[in-house]
Amino acid sequence: MGILSTSHSKKDQKIIHFSLVQADNLLLIFTRNPELGKCKTRLAATVGDQIALDIYNFLLSHTVKFTENINAAKEVHYSDEIWEDDIWDSAFYRKKLQIGKDLGERMEHAFRQGFEKGYKKIIIIGSDMFDLSGSDIENAFLRLDHADVVIGPAKDGGYYLLGMKKLKTDIFQNKNWGTDTVLNDTLNDLKNENVQLLETKNDVDLYEDIKNNVAFRHFLKDME
Q1: Which of 63, 131, 170, 172 is the S-S candidate for 108 at Cβ 3.0 to 4.6 Å?
Q2: What ranges in 37-148 are assigned the alpha helix state H?
Q3: Which pLDDT belongs to residue 23?
Q4: Burial 173-187 (b: 16+ CB within 10 A, else e)
Q5: Residue 211 in contact with residue 220, Cβ under 8 Å?
Q6: pLDDT at residue number 178
Q7: Number of helices (H) and strands (E), helices first, in the chain?
Q8: Treating both helix axes as pointing N-terminal to C-terminal, what angle do 49-67 and 134-143 enclose, rounded to 10 degrees?
């Protein structure tokens, strides 16, 4: 896999990048299984279940595109069951199941496993961020050279990215997940740590998050 091919196909490019993966870095991607009526439920309340599912599949494809060449080991953590034959190529993404009663427990378990495997820097993201890019994630890994924790604040009061060099269990406990208090409560837990904040970005949860974004216009054409 370390031999460079003269072919310039997308697959060959991925093989080259995969062979040069930074062994100390791990990217965790949390995702929901894309099933009708089970994803983007707050968005579905306005646009309907099918459009919400179509939008989520679009966001999943977008997440694959901007993460596939990230110079790190990558794990996809499914909400309900592991799908072997889907857009997450198992040659480049290790597949796991989220374990825990709530989001905090599930994230803590994923981070703990990663650190136990010997990774030095671990970052977690979701799969519903249209505004996120590969350079944002690479920048977050670099920030961890000089910080204990890196956080990407979301406009709704949560966060879209969390990175650590050592497991901080407090930040996963006693949180009202999905509310606008999560970021502030997390920062309060980290007041004695060296924390760097990234640019505030918008995730996709509600119709208002995408109604003026041209990338989603074809999904919403019947609502105009």
Answers
A1: 172
A2: 41-47, 49-67, 103-116, 134-143
A3: 78
A4: eebeeeeeebbebbb
A5: yes
A6: 86
A7: 6, 7
A8: 60
Stated pTM of the model: 0.88
Query: Which residue ranges make up each domain of the chain?
Result: 10-223
Other Cβ atoms closer than 10 A to 61: 11
Q: Are 107 and 125 in contact (CB under 8 A)?
A: no
Alpha carbons 40 and 180: distance in angstroms, whole number: 18
What is the identity of the amino acid at 19?
S
Q: Are 95 and 88 in contact (CB under 8 A)?
A: yes
- The H or E element containing residue 168 is none
- Say how far residue 167 (Cα) sits from the centre of its chain: 18
CATH topology of domain 10-223: Spore Coat Polysaccharide Biosynthesis Protein SpsA; Chain A (3.90.550)
Q: What is the structure's pLDDT at 12?
A: 44
How far is CA 222 from each of CA 49, 53, 59, 215, 216, rounded to the nearest angstrom? 14, 16, 20, 15, 12
Q: State which H helix or E strand residue 216 sits in.
A: none
Torsion 79-81-86-91 (CA) sign = positive
